[in-house]
Amino acid sequence: MNPTLIESVRLRQVNLPPKVVRTDAIQSFVTQETILLTLRCSDGSEGTGYAYTIGTGGSSVLALLRDHLAPRLIGRHPLNIEAIWKDLFFHTHATAVGAITSLALACVDTALWDWRARTLGLPLWQLLGGAQASVPVYTTEGGWLHLSASELVDQTLAAEAQGFRGAKIKVGRPHVSEDVARLSAVRQALGAGFEIMTDANQGFDRPQVLRRAAAFEGLDLAWLEEPLPAEDVSGHRQLRAQTSIPVAVGESLYHLGQFREYLEQGACSIVQPDVARVGGITPWIKVAHLAESFNVPVCPHFLMELHVSLCAAVPNAAWVEYIPQLDDITTSRIRVAAGQAFPPDRPGLGIEWDWPVIELRQLADLCVEKT
Ligand code: MG
Predict the structure, then answer these.
(1) Which of 6, 20, 101, 104 is the most exposed place for a label (fewest CB within 10 A)?
(2) 225 C-alpha to ligand 1 centroid (Å)
């Protein structure tokens, strides 16, 4: 019997507005450019993957896929995921490691894993390891930087009432006293048992981050996320040496080797790989296992519809971040109960795409096939 081979690759782009206004220390989230990749095989089987941007670069990801990556998939065996990932990475050698290339690789890689899980009839979380039937979930949707202290308190209390056990509050207001006032108001209202995650979005320099971290001591924060620019590994190491607050990094890292650097140097306490930005499920799982070897938990960034399954797959995932990302173009929803998120039991990624809606809203629809 001939093996099934990839015959065509379809690329679509859909732009989604965020559900609420999202601002942090360095940017605001304007539009989620969602790039969808569907590969179709000679036996008619299909797999769909995706990646996203928060407003810039979507057309570049699409062009890289159309012109350079998708043609190299035609005629390949979809089970050979590692071989395909390595081939595409080296083919784009002069533009890697980089965000656009990693996002494009993620479109391909997540489609290949969807195909594999569908073909084997397995949910992704069990195909990849099956470590936890559910994972604690925290919300980010009420903690944006433009909100007042009283709005933060109201939204965090509402999140607690919905069952969330933690919430993320953005930091990086112009003066340290404003951050302290906002965090203190939330801690006072929510009490000792509720987890407060904080996120600086790379907004501080070295002297400022030491001052802020010292001022935050005593608030019992779950972590301080992206306190410094992601490329300042030694700055993170210095910070860790001087604060008891766990330091989290990962959403702005684009390769497994960058995580190794942080872990090897003891420059972070928590890793937050983003399955789109790190280049797909193949490298994401490697990051998680690498972190496990350092006894470091994984708390991935964004993409909850996919990360819920990846977190459930590995033993060291601690939290899923709740930010609905795909509701406008999917019919499936993550089940959340009593502060726990449950991975879907459907074969594949477990994401049910709403194709009629996608066809109505798509800005691009391209097909690369065997010539
Ligand atoms: Mg963040």
Answers:
(1) 20
(2) 6
Full-model pTM: 0.96
b vs e for 127-157, b when ≥16 Cβ sit within 10 Å of the residue's Cβ? bbbebbebbbbbbbbbbbbebebeebbebbb
Q: Which residue has the tokens 């609905």?
A: 324
Q: pLDDT of 238-277, one tens digit each?
A: 999 999 999 999 999 999 999 999 999 999 999 999 999 9
Tally: H helices and E strands in the chain:
12, 13
Report the separation in Å between the CA atom of 179 and the middle of ligand 1, taken as the mean of its atom positions: 16
Cβ neighbours around 95 below 10 Å, total: 13
Terminal Cα-to-Cα distance of the chain (whole angstroms)? 23
- Cβ pair 364, 62 in contact under 8 A: yes
The tokens for 347 are 């074969």
Averaged pLDDT, 163-177: 96
Question: What DSSP state is assigned to residue 68?
Answer: I
- Packing angle, helices 176-190 and 149-161, rounded to 10: 30
- Active-site residue numbers? 170, 301
State the residue for tokens 């935050």: 216
pLDDT in tens, 101-148: 999 999 999 999 999 999 999 999 999 999 999 999 999 887 899 999
Which residues make Cβ contacts (< 8 Å) with residue 271, sequence separation at least 6?
248, 249, 250, 259, 262, 263, 287, 288, 291, 296, 297, 298, 299
Tokens of 244: 């008891």
Q: Would you state the structure tokens that stand for residue 352, as one six-digit string? A: 């049910």
Find where tokens 């050979």 sit: 80
Domains of the chain in sequence order: 6-121+355-369 (3.30.390.10), 125-342 (3.20.20.120)
Q: 201 C-alpha vs ligand 1 centroid, how far in Å?
A: 5
Are 251 and 226 in contact, with CB atoms under 8 Å apart? yes
Distance 48 CA to ligand 1 centre (A): 26
Assess contact for 332 and 107: CB atoms under 8 A.
no
What is the 122 CA–ligand 1 centroid distance (Å)?
31
Structure tokens at 40: 């179709």
